[in-house]
Write a structure and sequence with these properties.
The chain folds into two domains: about 55 residues, Structural Genomics Hypothetical 15.5 Kd Protein In mrcA-pckA Intergenic Region, Chain A; about 190 residues, Pseudouridine synthase. Helices cover about 25% and strands about 25% of the residues.
Length: about 260
């Protein structure tokens, strides 16, 4: 990263406003390489120098990427007057300007949410033409039938005549099913199974593309990853490969998927 003014770096890579940054600098709350720095105009190289504010290190990467295991009751939004949002689960030190959830999970759904300030990556992930697959471990009221899997593979027509793209599905133990979608219509998984005469009891997103939610990441916890680690997300993976990895750790995923 090229050199940048200290005050600009702090304002860009933290939740503090420019005025708050000035106050923190005046109070001696900012340190560069363990030395207190009060001059916001000083040029620094965030890639080679360590900057802390109030004792917490400010991340130097050009973008932030967080994998969150979203619990029930949190909204995939940056702010809301009625509900807690996924940003409430992230510490202040990582709530940089522009951080947002790339993609949406319903309030009562759980699992993998990517938080980032990288709008280009979010576009690559969400653009309909990209068809990046999303995988959900779904617990149903009734076990899925072979004819349901066949119907999903051909493309379901919802009650309002909305046509869904073909989806892949695999039966799992205890009335669970792993389903892969290549689009993201409103309440799509729930509506698809309702059209088949079934009911979704819980929905847990376990993968986006080839990026799989770590099975040991507890509900409500997050993990920071590097941009190079996200390359796997945009690479095609076979449905069978994802199935095998989820089935291998099914007990951990099914516990997280329980409401």
């Amino acid at each position: 990263m090229a050199e940048i003014r200290l005050d600009k770096f702090l304002a860009n890579r933290s939740s503090y406003s420019r005025n708050e940054v000035k106050n923190l600098l005046r109070k001696g709350a900012v340190r560069v390489d363990a030395v207190t720095e009060c001059d916001g105009s000083r040029k620094i190289d965030p890639d080679s120098q360590i900057v802390t504010c109030l004792g917490k290190q400010i991340q130097s990467g050009s973008h932030v990427y967080l994998i969150l295991n979203k619990p029930v009751g949190y909204l995939c939004a940056t702010e809301d007057r009625s509900h807690r949002t996924v940003l409430d689960l992230i510490p202040e030190s990582l709530r940089i300007k522009g951080l947002f959830p790339a993609g949406r999970l319903d309030l009562d759904s759980t699992g993998l949410v990517l938080l980032t300030d990288d709008g280009q990556l979010a576009h690559e992930m969400l653009a309909p033409k990209k068809h990046v697959p999303k995988y959900y471990l779904v617990r149903l009221r009734d076990p899925i039938r072979d004819q349901d899997i066949q119907a999903l593979s051909k493309g379901i027509v919802l009650s309002d005549q909305t046509h869904c793209l073909p989806a892949q599905a695999q039966a799992f133990p205890d009335s669970y099913v792993l389903i892969c979608l290549h689009e993201g219509k409103y309440h799509q998984v729930k509506r698809m199974f309702a059209s088949l005469g079934n009911h979704v009891e819980s929905l847990h997103r376990v993968a986006i593309g080839g990026l799989i939610l770590p099975e040991n990441l507890r509900s409500g916890a997050y993990l920071e990853i590097l941009h190079k680690d996200l390359a796997v997300m945009l690479k095609a993976q076979s449905f069978q490969v994802i199935c095998e990895q989820i089935l291998k750790n099914f007990s951990s995923y099914s516990i997280n998927a329980s409401p």
